[in-house]
Design brief:
The protein is α+β, with helices and mostly antiparallel strands. It has a single domain, classed as Carboxypeptidase-like, regulatory domain (Immunoglobulin-like), CATH 2.60.40. About 15% of the residues lie in helices and about 40% in strands. It has one helix at about 1-25, and strands at about 30-40, 50-55, 70-75, 80-85, 90-100, 105-115, 120-125, 125-129. The strands form two sheets. The protein has a five-stranded antiparallel β-sheet with strand order 3-2-5-6-8, with no helix packed on it. Strand 5 and strand 6 (about 105-115) form a beta hairpin. The longest helix has 22 residues, at about 1-25. The N and C termini lie far apart (about 85 Å).
Length: about 130
Amino acid sequence: MKISTFILPLSAILLISAVLTVSSCRKPSPPTAVITVVNEEKVAVAGAEVTIYVGGINLALVDIANGKNKIVATTNSAGQVTLEFKYEAIYDVTAKQFDEDGNLMKQGDGVLILEEGKTYNEQIILRAE
């Protein structure tokens, strides 16, 4: 009788501890950024060059991707670039539109504020230089 009164509460405590430990070990999803580039009329701009980088004094402290201090991507037909990051961070973003000869036509700037488990949406409006 004494053994069963000791084992039953102990078993319940161990079971509750195991359930709480397993359920709290879920890894949060990485931060994601969706950058949408539009013109002054709010029309999506396909083929814009988007550069994500660390500005200011933090440049030497952050490794964005594989030893590089910036990411360069091109917007799709919807004027968007979607990227997944490893860590929470704050990045500067510049979007540029060039003509057929490679001359800069329009440019816009923004900021990404990335948090684990969240998607950050940033709209950049291109304006003439």
